[in-house]
């Protein structure tokens, strides 16, 4: 793999990792206490999906940089 391809793929992985790390902040909602009762958020599914995405990103980094 050429250095240009490694740079391109590392930027893609970095952008993906940043979006994964910042996305939990969108689940936190500000609301007043008199608001209608909301359905509870399924945190287990959210955490599981982040763990899977993180594993895929780590595997991609391993393939790009350490496997020849």
Automatic annotation (TrEMBL):
Bilayer-crossing regions: 7-27, 47-66
Keyword Transmembrane helix: yes
Entry keywords, A to Z: Membrane, Transmembrane, Transmembrane helix
Protein's name according to its UniProt entry: Uncharacterized protein
């Amino acid at each position: 793999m050429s250095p240009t391809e490694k740079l391109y793929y590392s930027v893609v992985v970095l952008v993906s990792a940043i979006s994964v790390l910042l996305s939990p902040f969108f689940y936190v909602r500000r609301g007043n206490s008199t608001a209608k009762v909301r359905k509870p958020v399924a945190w287990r599914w959210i955490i599981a999906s982040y763990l899977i995405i993180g594993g895929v990103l780590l595997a991609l980094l391993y393939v790009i940089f350490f496997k020849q």
